[in-house]
Each structure stands twice: as structure tokens, then as C-alpha cells.
Design a protein that fits this description.
- The complex is a heterodimer of chains A (419) and B (244).
- With 419 residues, chain A is α+β, with helices and mostly antiparallel strands.
- Chain A has 2 domains: 194 residues, no CATH class; 174 residues, no CATH class.
- Chain A is built from 15 helices and 11 strands.
- In chain A, β7 and β8 form a beta hairpin.
- Chain B is an alpha/beta fold.
- Chain B has a single domain, classed as Rossmann fold (3-Layer(aba) Sandwich), CATH 3.40.50.300.
- Helix content of chain B is 32%, strand content 27%.
- A 6-stranded mixed beta sheet of chain B has the order 6-7-8-3-9-10, sandwiched between helices. In chain B, strands 2-1-4-5 form a 4-stranded antiparallel beta sheet, with helices on one face.
- Chain B is globular and about 45 Å long.
- Classes of the chains: A alpha+beta (419), B alpha/beta (244).
- Chains A and B meet through α1 and α11 of A and α2 and α3 of B.
């Protein structure tokens, strides 16, 4: 496009758009609608993704949870079907051998203990855990309370940390912190209540409906040593496979089972879960994006249609320009530009509309509505904007290119024949 | 009329001074079902500065010949040299460049671009020829002045009379200082007085030494030409110099 004068091209473009004004407006509207669709779909997908990620973090970062089970392989002369039931003191043993883990802790759980405050008694879940549980499993206390600490554990203090829903069930409107309540008729001091949190995955019921006490206290009161769960946390997500390997080796060495026995070593790896979830989310977003792109494509066909009409209408002018020495690309340039201009205009309009819609949806209160809370809020990211712009740009170029190709194929001798 | 006199590009013509050299030119329109033989072996030589009228009945192949001469179309067979340059086998872009630099077209229905002013219309070929903006404007104004339309430069074609439109078209055809001016029935759509205006312009151009080929039905126009070529059924049946 050596000599393309953009002023002349612009002049031709403005003239053409005024000739086809009604159609142009409809087409720009179609493109705008397509853009709104693609941006909103992708933004909802993004909001959902963010919400799921948040929900995953409700459990804690890079967590794995293990349950006791029986062996399924013969090992060193020992039969299959032996239960592997680690004890409380195995936690220290594991901590010494799992260098890739930033924390290892045990849980003892009673599923139905009677929990009493005043005259009200309910049946609930009590877990005994190491004091690191508060950080690792994201048990953060509401204002005025705390999780139990190393001294509480060491001295077997009777202190209890309540899930927020459980606290409401037992105490109603009363602030539980500082009150004394009873667990199986043994008095405990309530030291904290869980901050409300979004938790997507659980392995014994949501944290909000349970209570936690020091593991040593639990062992003393319930007379149990065998762990219900072992929870460990890898230093980073990348360390998780190594941490799992170290866990298997250490436990297998002590309890004499095949470290590759998956019935024993099987556990819940939230890192892998997150990876799978991430892939599902990417798949979902691609799917939503394709739906949006198809909507947009229909708008693009509208643009191409207008451009075909313009080319047909201007066949003689194209012939004249060619007779005057215009090369093919100089004739097609304005058409490509025009198709692109319509598309980008519609795209910009659609983007503004979508942004306003996202802004308004952000103002809708979601607290207390579980469905809305789970869905999250549509979120516009720069990746979405970039993807939309790329789709718009390609559709715009295609919408101009095909009609322009027809323009370039005009035979000047044919069109200039005087009828 | 006061035409801007430029040094003619003498080197551009063939070594023998011929602008047009056609040997055995044929043109067949193949529509798939039927083949139409529009030209059946045209031999034609035009020297620099000649004013040639091409006459003949409708459908005789006059316009086809003009399209081939102006490189708007390519012959099916034969050899064509324009200003010494063989045209056969050139690609579309190259042909576009030749049309731009060597040929000026004037059409029966003017074919001005309706959304552009007279000045912008004349600037069009200069734009395609890569002439810089300021120079473009200067040369376009010069050409419009020469055809007596200095006061109409900002008018759109719809605001001009037929004769004025054809004069804009002539100014446009001459803007790139072509070797050859081709006109297809230039007076065909004009009333008598406008037509004679155009005749005067063509005469003036001829007397300045420009090479003109005009397809016409108009006997008045044919008489002005120094040479008349008559075509019938795709062949030249008569080629004579007009006395006087």
C-alpha cells in the first residue's frame, strides 16, 4: 500500500457509511451484542474461578489429608488386610522425616459428643488437633477470640474453639468467648469462634459446624491414641509429590507395608485437586468463549454482508479507480478498513456496555444467598479483554477481507462498458 | 485554453517513435457456452502526435480495441507494444502502473467519482502515481485551469453540467501526463454546444502534439481527426488519412 492516502480512504469510508446508515447501525449493534455476550460469559467464568480458588483456600494451602486404612498387598511375609493405625506420637516421627512438608499434624475426632451450654445440649463434632492446626487449616478466630497455642497443647488445657455455625447453635445470640461449656459433661473454656469462610471441600464436615480442642486434652478425656486423620502441608505446591513420597516411605518403614500400596497411601491431595479444578475451569472458559465467539461471528457475517452490498454498489467506482491506475490492494484497503472499523466500533460499544453491567452486578449484595455467593461476581480481567479484542480483530479483518477480495476481482473493462 | 506545456517524454516512445504497435491482435470472449470473436487480427500503428478516430457500427469491436489499447484488458493473441513496452504477460499491478503513467481515459458517461470534488477527482491518478500531496494539488489545479474550470474546483460532479463533467474527466485523464489519451464516445452524452466545447478541447490537445484515439459515432468529431480507422466485425476495413 505504497501510496494509500488515508484521507481519501477516510473520505470514501465516511461516504459509504452514510449510504448504508440503517444497516450499519444494526450491524454495529449486532457486534456490540456479541461482544457483551463474550465478555459477560468469560467474566462470569472468571468470577466462578476466583470463587472456587478462594473456596479451596478455605481448607488451607497445599494441604493433604490421610485416613487410616488396611493394606492390600503382601509385604515382607506379612499378609494383606492388616489395618494401619498410626498413633499420636507418630506425628513427631513424621515431622522428623518429611523435609518437604512445612507442617504435619494429627487429628482425633469424635463425631457425636454432647455439647452443653446452660440448659441447651446438642450433639456435635469435636476434633483434637495439634496447635498448628489453626494456621494450617485456616481456623482464624473472630475478633475477641483466639485459636489454642502450644502451651494449651502441652498442658492439656480444656479450651475449645468453635465453628461459627456450631457456636450459633449452642449459644444463640450470646458471645461464647470466655464462657464455660461442657463437652460430655466436662467443662471447657471457649477461647475463640471461627471467622465465617468459604470452604469448598471437606473431609469430615464443614469447619463451621465442628469444634476443635488440643489433641492432648482430647486424648486425656476420650482415652484414644489412634489418629483419625493425618494432615500435612507441603512447603510449596511443587513440593507436594516429594512430601507425599516422604510420608509414604516413613509410614511404610514404621508400620511395615509396601510404600506403593495405594490402599494405605491413598490420600486427598488438594494441590492435585486444584490442578484438576484449574483444568476444568480453563475448559469451561474455553467453552464459554466459543459460545461468545459464535455470537460474535454472526455479527461479523452481518458486517461482511454490508460490505458485499457496498462493493456491489461501488463496482463502477472500483472500475474507474482501476482504470486510473489503482492497484488491487489500494482498492481493497478501504474495504478491509471499513469492515474492521464497523467491528471495532461495535466491539468498543459492547465492551463499555459489558463493563457497566459488570459494575452494576458488583453492587448486588450476595451475602446470605448461597447460590450467588457460590457463583461469585463477574470479573473482567486483562486476559479476557485481550481475548475479546483478538476475536473481534480477526472477525473484523475477515468481514472486510472477503468482500474486498470481490472488489479486487472487478474487471474494469467490464464495469466501464457504457450501457 | 492555456495548457501547461511540459517537455514531452520523447524517450518513452518506441525507438521508431511509435506510441502504439499492434500486430495480429485477437480477442475472444469465452463465456463458457459460446465463444465470441471480438477482434480478428488487428494490425495498427500510431505515431506520436496523431489524432485517430475509430469508427464503425455497434458491436464491431471498437470498445474492445480501446480497452486493449488502454491495458484495461489483455489480448487473446498477437503482440502489443505501448510506447515500446511489450504488454503481454504483465501482471495486474504492472498493468495498473502502465494505465496510471501512460494512458488517460475519457468515458462517454464521464465516470467521475460522485463523492469527490472536481479537484479530488483530478488528484486521483496523481494519488495512485505516488505524487506528493502539495505537488498533487498544484498539478490538479493546473489541469482544471487549462480546461477552464478554475472556479469549479470544489464542486461535486452532481453540481456540474455534462460538458463541465467531461472537462473534469479530461483534466483527470491528463493529470499524469500520459503518452496516450483514449476517449470512448466523449461527446455521446452531451448536447451539441457542450459537444463542440469538448471537440475544441480535443483539437487543442492535438495541436499541442498529444496522441489521441477517439472512438466515436459523431461525424463532426471523426472529421476533426487526422486519421480515421474503420472497424467492422473485429477487423480494420479502412484506414485513411483525412484530407486537410
Amino acid at each position: 500500500m505504497r501510496f494509500l492516502d488515508w484521507r481519501v480512504v477516510g473520505h470514501l469510508f465516511l461516504r459509504a457509511s452514510s449510504l448504508q446508515r440503517k444497516r450499519a447501525i444494526l450491524t454495529v449493534a449486532a457486534i456490540a451484542w456479541g461482544t457483551v455476550a463474550i465478555v459477560m460469559l468469560l467474566s462470569f467464568g472468571e468470577g466462578l474461578k476466583i470463587q472456587l480458588m478462594k473456596g479451596r483456600h478455605g481448607m488451607g494451602e497445599n494441604i493433604a489429608v490421610w485416613w487410616p486404612d488396611e493394606t492390600s498387598k503382601v509385604w515382607q511375609g506379612l499378609p494383606e488386610g492388616r489395618p494401619i493405625r498410626p498413633r499420636m506420637d507418630d506425628i513427631d516421627y513424621l515431622r522428623g522425616r518429611m523435609t518437604a512438608a512445612s507442617g504435619v499434624l494429627g487429628e482425633l475426632t469424635s463425631w457425636s459428643s454432647s455439647l452443653t451450654y446452660g440448659t441447651k445440649t446438642i450433639t456435635g463434632r469435636v476434633t483434637g488437633a495439634n496447635w498448628e492446626y489453626g494456621e494450617m487449616r485456616h481456623h482464624f478466630a473472630q475478633e475477641g477470640g483466639r485459636f489454642f497455642n502450644i502451651n494449651d497443647e502441652r498442658e492439656k488445657r480444656r479450651v475449645i474453639f468453635l465453628g461459627d455455625e456450631l457456636a450459633k447453635d449452642i449459644f444463640g445470640e450470646v458471645d461464647p468467648v470466655g464462657k464455660t461449656m461442657f463437652v460430655n459433661r466436662v467443662p471447657y473454656l471457649v477461647i475463640g469462634v471461627l471467622q465465617p469462610k468459604l470452604q469448598m471441600g471437606t473431609y469430615k464436615g464443614p469447619d463451621e459446624s465442628g469444634s476443635v480442642i488440643p489433641i492432648t486434652t482430647f486424648a486425656a478425656q476420650f482415652g484414644r491414641q489412634r489418629l483419625t486423620n493425618i494432615v500435612f502441608q507441603a512447603k510449596t505446591a511443587e513440593d507436594m509429590p516429594l512430601a507425599r513420597e516422604q510420608f509414604n516411605q516413613a509410614l511404610a518403614a514404621k508400620y511395615r507395608f509396601d510404600p506403593t500400596d495405594e490402599q494405605v497411601t491413598g490420600l486427598w491431595d488438594t494441590v492435585e485437586g486444584a490442578r484438576v479444578m484449574g483444568n476444568i475451569m480453563i475448559g469451561l472458559q474455553i467453552f464459554l468463549g466459543i459460545i461468545g465467539a459464535l455470537t460474535l461471528l454472526i455479527g461479523g457475517i452481518g458486517v461482511a454482508n454490508i460490505m458485499y452490498a457496498v462493493v456491489k454498489e461501488k463496482t463502477r467506482e472500483i472500475g474507474v479507480q482501476m482504470a486510473l491506475g489503482a492497484r488491487g490492494s489500494w482498492v481493497t484497503g478501504p474495504f478491509v478498513l471499513q469492515g474492521l472499523a464497523y467491528t471495532l466500533l461495535g466491539g468498543a460499544l459492547g465492551l463499555v456496555i459489558a463493563m457497566v453491567m459488570i459494575l452494576l452486578l458488583g453492587l448486588v449484595p450476595v451475602d446470605g444467598n448461597a447460590a450467588l455467593e457460590f457463583l461469585g461476581k463477574p470479573t473482567l480481567s486483562w486476559q479476557i479483554a485481550l481475548a475479546t479484542a483478538a476475536v473481534l480483530g480477526s472477525i473484523g479483518i475477515l468481514a472486510g477481507y472477503f468482500p474486498a477480495r470481490r472488489a479486487a476481482a472487478v474487471d474494469p473493462a467490464e464495469t466501464l462498458r457504457y450501457e | 485554453m492555456n495548457w501547461p506545456h511540459k517537455k514531452r517524454k520523447n524517450g518513452a516512445a518506441g525507438s521508431n517513435g511509435h506510441i502504439i504497435e499492434m500486430r495480429g491482435i485477437t480477442k475472444v470472449y469465452d463465456t463458457g457456452k459460446i465463444k465470441v470473436q471480438a477482434l480478428r487480427g488487428i494490425d495498427l500503428t500510431v505515431k506520436r502526435g496523431e489524432f485517430v478516430a475509430v469508427v464503425g457500427p455497434s458491436g464491431s469491436g471498437k470498445s474492445t480495441l480501446l480497452n486493449l489499447l488502454g491495458c484495461l484488458d489483455t489480448p487473446t493473441g498477437g503482440e502489443y507494444r505501448l510506447s515500446g513496452e511489450a504488454v503481454a504477460g504483465l501482471d495486474r499491478d504492472h498493468l495498473a502502473d502502465i494505465r496510471n503513467r501512460r494512458v488517460g481515459f475519457v468515458f462517454q458517461n464521464f465516470n467521475l467519482l460522485p463523492q469527490l470534488t472536481a479537484l479530488e477527482n483530478v488528484e486521483m491518478p496523481l494519488l495512485f502515481g505516488g505524487v506528493a500531496k502539495r505537488e498533487r494539488r498544484r498539478r490538479a489545479l493546473e489541469q482544471l485551469e487549462a480546461v477552464g474550470l478554475a472556479d469549479r474546483v470544489e464542486h461535486k460532479p452532481t453540481e456540474l453540467s455534462g460538458g463541465q463533467m467531461q472537462r473534469v474527466a479530461i483534466a483527470r485523464a491528463l493529470a499524469m501526463e500520459p503518452d496516450l489519451l483514449l476517449a470512448d464516445e466523449p461527446t455521446g452524452n452531451l448536447d451539441t454546444s457542450s459537444g463542440s466545447d469538448i471537440l475544441a478541447v480535443l483539437n487543442e490537445l492535438s495541436s499541442q502534439g498529444r496522441t489521441l484515439m477517439v472512438v466515436t459515432h459523431d461525424p463532426a468529431l471523426a472529421k476533426r481527426a487526422g486519421r480515421t480507422v474503420e472497424i467492422c466485425d473485429g477487423e480494420i476495413v479502412e484506414d485513411k488519412a483525412n484530407g486537410g
